[in-house]
Amino acid sequence: MKEIKIESTLYLYENLEALPKKAFLLMQEAIKARKKAYAPYSNFNVGAAILLDNDEIVTGNNQENASYPSGLCAERTAVYYAGSQFPNAKILLMAISAGSQKSQTTKPIPPCGACRQSIAEYEIKQEASIEIYFMGEIGQVMKSNSLSDLLPLGFDKSVL
Predict the structure, then answer these.
(1) C-beta neighbour count of 123 within 10 angstroms
(2) SS3 state at 95
């Protein structure tokens, strides 16, 4: 047996104000999007904002449905919209803000597994990493330089 060690490097900012200017402005858009989420079942609102290489900003938020699998997460809403409206643009940065309607979230909340897989597809498609910043409602912000830091050993077209 051979041991394989996988390491990821993430960066932690103490608060929103500590972010680089582009990330700060993008997170502001994610927060605005979070406040418009439709989450009557989970009571957990998520907003995402994406900066494209053509300087367009695309936002998305979670949209729930009584038939749970029919809903869609904020990150995928934004990524798929960017892909449909700007198919040749690259995603440079993504900002995510998540919060509960029941209690204030203060820790960084990363994308779920399905969203990680979807974001990974776009990194592979564009042959470039996507910087991802994520937070709760307030408090610290975490940054990943690439989705591969959040999803090591990802599933992609090379195995099909």
Answers:
(1) 19
(2) strand
Identify whether the C-beta of residue 98 lies closer than 8 Å to the C-beta of residue 136: yes
For residue 135, the Cα-to-chain-centroid distance in whole angstroms is 10
Instruction: Report d(CA 158, CA 80) in Å as an integer.
Output: 22
For the question of residue 131 being annotated catalytic, the response is: no
Residue 150 CB neighbours (<10 A)? 20
Which residue type sits at 56? Answer: E
CB 78 within 8 A of CB 60: yes
Say which of 29, 64, 75, 131 is annotated catalytic: 75
Q: What residues pair up with 44 in beta bridges, in sequence order?
A: 100
Residue 136, token pair as written in the block: 């709760």
132 near 147, Cβ under 8 Å? yes
What pLDDT, in 10s, does the model give residues 87-130?
999 999 999 999 999 999 999 999 999 999 999 999 999 999 99
Note the pTM of the prediction, 2 decimals. Answer: 0.96
Buried/exposed code over 53-84 (b: 16+ C-beta within 10 A; e: otherwise): eeeebbbbbbbbeeeeeebbbbbbbbbeebbe
Alpha helices in the chain (DSSP H): 21-34, 74-85, 113-126
Give Rg (Cα) of the chain: 15
